[in-house]
Amino acid sequence: MAGEWCIGIIGGSGLYDIGALEDEQWLAIETPWGEPSDEILCGRIGDVKVRFLPRHGRGHPISPNELNSRANIDALKRAGCTDILAISAVGSLREQLEPGRFVVVEQFLDRTKMRPPSFFGSGFVAHVSMADPVCERLSDRAAKAIAACKGKVAVGATYVAIEGPQFSTRAESLLYQRWGADVIGMTGMPEARLAREAELPYALIGMVTDYDCWRVDENGKGDAVDVAQVVEQMQENGELARNAIVRFIEKLPKTRKPSPIDTALDDAVITAPEERDPELEAKLDAVAKRVLAGEG
Q1: pTM for this one?
Q2: Count H helices, E strands: the chain?
């Protein structure tokens, strides 16, 4: 059934606001998974509801390896989001993906190690499909919005997510390149996994800030990632990113058609209702609300 859009925007490094919202109001949302990165900025662009969450908090106090992604996705779900557009700073693993270019991510390689990867677990088991981890229609619209704002954009990128907060070693950077990764970052996972479990279509725009450290000479020497360079490039990318977000939202159809991702849990939940852990089931009241309501 067609309905209204409510777009969740997750702003990454260098993007702590949108600057174009009407009727804006910061809203604190409690979740059973702990505190999200910040309050959620609620408002609208035209007739479309928007929910903005700065991934690292306003002023960037939260390290990527300490993000509470479960709380962030749960809070956006509770705020009424139907879809999520995420923005992240990324390093490039390809010569043709130069700093300043935007990439629309299609696939992920997950090298994170210490972050809770799922809302589900023993007592309430679910296995969602991650074969196609992003929403094609959101990704397509995001690419068109960037191009319309005169940004350079590449599509179909594979993103390798590392734990951080350190940048990769040169050996790792070269390895990821050989694996087929195009860009590298620290926040795309498990964020994309959790969005799928919450039945929220998700797309990720990467803002290329640097070439990571894979570019070496015949002696194996090369430049390292420089934080000052990353910050400078993020600031240059930020205004175009904000304009692209507005364009993306303004060009959405008047009504939202259903997505297959809206029902991702239908074929994923495996634990019988009578065998579920009541405490875990209670924590899933937002993430699995549709499925739980259908069983009630």
Answers
A1: 0.96
A2: 7, 9
Look at residue 236 and tell me whether its pLDDT is greater than 90: no
Examine the pLDDT at 67 and tell me if it is beyond 70: yes
* 3-state SS assignment for residue 209: strand
In the DSSP assignment, the letter for residue 158 is E
Strands 48-54 and 6-11: parallel
CATH number of 81-295: 3.40.50.1580
155-169 per-position pLDDT tens digit: 999 999 999 999 999
Q: One-letter amino acid identity for 278?
A: P
Task: Pick the catalytic residue from 140, 212, 226, 277.
Answer: 212
212 tagged catalytic = yes
Q: What is the DSSP letter of 252?
A: S
User: What dihedral angle (degrees, nearest 10) is formed by the CA atoms of 101, 213, 157, 164?
Assistant: -110
Catalytic site residue 210? yes
- The predicted pLDDT at position 296 comes to 62
Q: Which of these is catalytic: 38, 83, 110, 210?
A: 210
Domain-by-domain residue ranges, the chain? 81-295
